[in-house]
Amino acid sequence: MMGSLDSLCPVVLDHLIRLVWQNTLFLTGLLIALGLFHRTPAKMRYAIVRIAAIKLAIPVLLPIQPVLRLFSPTSAEGWLEAILVFPSVKSSAALTNPIWLLLPLWAFVTTVLWLAPILRTRRLIAQTRAGRPVGEFRGIPVVRFRKNFLPYAVGFFTPRIVVPRQWNEWSANQHRLILQHEWVHIRRGDVWMRLVLAWVQALYFFHPLVRLFNRSFLDILEQSCDEETLALLPLSPLDYSRALILVTESSLDISNPGALALPLLYRASALGRRITHLLQTQLSAPAKTWSGLLMWSGLIVGIAVFSISHPQKLPESFAASASSAMHRSLVAYDQAPYSHGGFAELQRSLNYPESARRSGLEGDVILSAEIDERGQTGRVAVLQSSGHAEFDHAAREAIRSVTWVPAQSMGKPVRVEVAVPIRFRLE
Fold first, then answer.
1. Cα 400 to Cα 397: distance, rounded to the nearest angstrom
2. Domains of the chain, each with CATH number or no CATH
C-alpha cells in the first residue's frame, strides 16, 4: 500500500505543478487582454471570464500526443514543449517524504477554504429567514433587516433579496435600481459563478495571479450587471450613477456581507471604476466587433494550448532518453538498475508490430517497470500510451524479456521502479 502511494504521489504532484505552470501563463495572457480591452462591453468580458473561471476550476490536462498529430512534428513539437513542459518532480528518496506531506496539505487547505464560504452562506441564508417580508419582485422574495448595510441577493435554489432598515427612506428610483440590479444577478445565476470562483481561489490559494483574476472577475461581474440593469430601467447612465452613489452613501456598512452573497457593491474602491465604465464613451460598432473577435480568438487559443499536458519530454536521442530514464527511481539507491546488454539488448528485444509496419505507424511509449532484488521484471504499466495498443503491448513484452542488474543501495540489491521510454520508428 505504501509503495503504491509513493509511486502515485510524484505523479499527482507533477501533474499539479504542470497545471499551475500552464494556468500561470494562461492567467498572465488573460489579465493583459482584459486590461487592453477594458472599454469593450462588460457583458462580453463577463462571458469570457466565466469560461476562463470554469477552465481554471477543472484541474484536468489533456494528453499532448493527439494534439501533436494535428501538426507536423518539426513545427509543432518544439514550441508546444517550450510552453507546456515544466521541469518534472524528481522522484528520489529526498523528495518522497515532502511530496507525501505536500499533497494532503494542499487538499486539506483547498477543502477548508472552499467549504468556509459555503458554510457562511448557509448561515447568511438562515439569518434572512428572520427578516421582515416587504413583498416580491418578479417572483423573488424581498426581506428587510433592522441593520444598516448594502442590499444583496443570496441563495442557491431559493434566492431572495435582502434590503436594510433604511429601505423606506430611499426613493422609488433607488428601489427600482436595487431590485432590478439584484434580480439580474439572480436571473444570470451569478451565485453559481461565485461558487466556481471560490473553488478556483481555494485551489490556487497561494497564487497571486488568481487573486488578481478574482478582483477583475468581480469588477466585470458588477459592470456587466450595471449594463443589463440600465438597459431595463428608464434612467440615463448619469442618473443611474447618482442613484448608486446615494444608496452607497446612506449605508454605513459597505463591506461585503461575506460568503457567496451578491451585494450591490463588493468594495468601496470599485465604485469609481463602475461609474467610469457607465459614463465612458462607448466603442463604435466595428470596434466592438473586432475587439470581441480578438478576445474570443485569444480565449479559444489560450484554452486549447494551456489545457495540454506533456507528462515527460522525450529527448531527441533515444539512447540518451533511455539512459536518463533508467536513473528515475521511486526509492533511494546508490546504483541504478541496468540491463546486461544495455540499450542494444532492449532494441533487439523490440518486436515491431507487423500491422503497424504495414500501416506506416510510429509512436512513443513510456513504461513504468518494477525491477526486484534479483533483477527480475515485475509489474509493468503504461505511463504514457502511444495511442496504439499494439505498440503498448510490444513495449511491455520487450521490457519483460530484458535481464537486469538490480539497483544497489548501501551495497545491497533493492527493489525499484523505473520509467523507460521506448520509441517505435520505421527505418
1. 5
2. 1-313 (no CATH), 318-424 (3.30.2420.10)
